[in-house]
Amino acid sequence: MERNAAELLRDALALPTEARSALIDSLIESLDQNVEEGVEDAWRREIELRLQQIDNGAVELISWRTARERLRDRLDR
Fold this sequence. Notes:
The structure is a single chain. The protein is an all-alpha fold. It has 2 domains: 1-34; 35-77, no CATH class. The chain contains 4 helices and no strands. The protein has helices at residues 5-13, 17-31, 39-55, 64-76. It is extended, with a radius of gyration of 18 Å.
């Protein structure tokens, strides 16, 4: 029995948060089969740098709500 994308999405959205997150990770990973050499290391270094910036107070963290509002404001211009 075939299921269409809308049905799959409906069922996926009904999953608990952790299960949806795991599903998202799996789907994204399935798209990244031809990753250029060095990309994963570059991302790892970038993540480490950003974590250091957070830990030493070099950057200001904002809530998702604030970030979303700022993005909407930029799009409305």
